[in-house]
């Protein structure tokens, strides 16, 4: 992916105000108060939980002359997988802003890493993936941190990806001392993340660590011989086998024998949405337009009153050259120190509108979907993608599914935007655009599918075709045909976005070669298609990010046709006229 230019900050920060849909208030991407302290100290130890399990913590405090300064400070903590961390400068590299948060101790914070039970230096057994044991640990740890002699009683929590989910679960148990949450790239409902489209994703089965892995990490202070670390590592081996657990849960209402629960519910923040909403805790959501979980953050924005969000041209938990650490600092200064930073005078959503491979501008909105965006229908026909859905023409194309496919010459994370597969599936392409159009929101498609088997996975990719013929995937969607039934969502969804319940009773297997109508959403995006570029939709029956690909040689053919109700349609959320 691009958008990694080191000139990004120099080019775009001065342009934030000029190019915004709404004026971006002073302070966004430009919050750099001078540090109050030049030094920090770090010490680690164990804290005993209610059931006797000892969790490892590492505490970074402001210091002077090598010693922690006296006084009480707000606390920021991270419910992570190990108290070991890699410090970075916050301006580049994978999850760099989160790695750099301990440097906020120089600004008058105590920053704490807590290894979750069954992970890192902590004792205990990891049960599932964000079970309620961990949530209750978060409650207990938050209150414990608030009561320490170096704490002023105001506590914030942060995280991204796995630890972003942990931060949201901390919010769900409503600790009285928890005053702010910064969470990135997490799941609102785990089924919609791990089995989006009811298709099993190729990630989320770790951490799975050996005793040797655990013994290689630094121990807590005083355990230099690693005897305690070895005891903890032995306990870790009793953790839930995650692949086994997920495999038991093909439907949203599936029961896991391994867990003894309907774990999609137990482990999903969405099932505690009322508690999260009642908490009143300020929430700042971070996401990226190339991240596999970006829809989850925007759905959370709709369902948590008072929350705010930032979405940039980033992959999973990355911020590239954007000064995200400054924005995190501003958020915690606002809610843990009560400082006036301008944050609360800004619209709740900052998002990057991508223009080409490296350009774009920041915009702001008080709503999602943003105001001034309307769905425009594009007919998918054998003669191409028509900008007028009434232009006539039908769709009737078929292709053989190739299950063994990958990105040619590229190594792309299973949690990131896919590459364009030129030789696979079918491609439906528009004529060159007469003028640029901005697509901001959740595209969706409606098409009939038939196949020679009783089920099929359908993947749809929205692509930008440049005048030189190069193709860029902008966003994508997926759906298992047998799980096509739509329903009313039990939480707020972006207007016009179809929702699927995906219960076992909703499964409708196909009859060979008989068409069924599919309607499903693509992941959200914000992208300008330039004049003279073409819009393209590509359909395939497999994706390299899919875990249970049928690569055993069972031949499958998929036929896509216009629905009996009319036209096969791509609906694009187009901004302006």
Largest sheet: 20 strands, mixed
Would you identify the regions where 5 or more consecutive residues have pLDDT less than 50?
A: 1-26, 87-94
Average pLDDT level: 89
Q: What is the overall silhouette?
A: globular
Count of distinct structural domains: 2
Proportion of residues in β-strands: 25-35%
How much helical structure, as a percent, in the residues? 10-25%
**CA-to-CA gap between the ends?**
29 Å
Query: What count of helical segments does DSSP give?
Result: 13
CATH topology-level name of the largest domain: Rossmann fold
Number-wise, the strands total 24
Q: Under the CATH scheme, which class of the largest domain?
A: Alpha Beta
Query: What's the CATH architecture of the largest domain?
Result: 3-Layer(aba) Sandwich
- The secondary structure category is alpha+beta
Radius of gyration: 24 Å
**CATH-defined superfamily of the largest domain:** Alpha/Beta hydrolase fold, catalytic domain
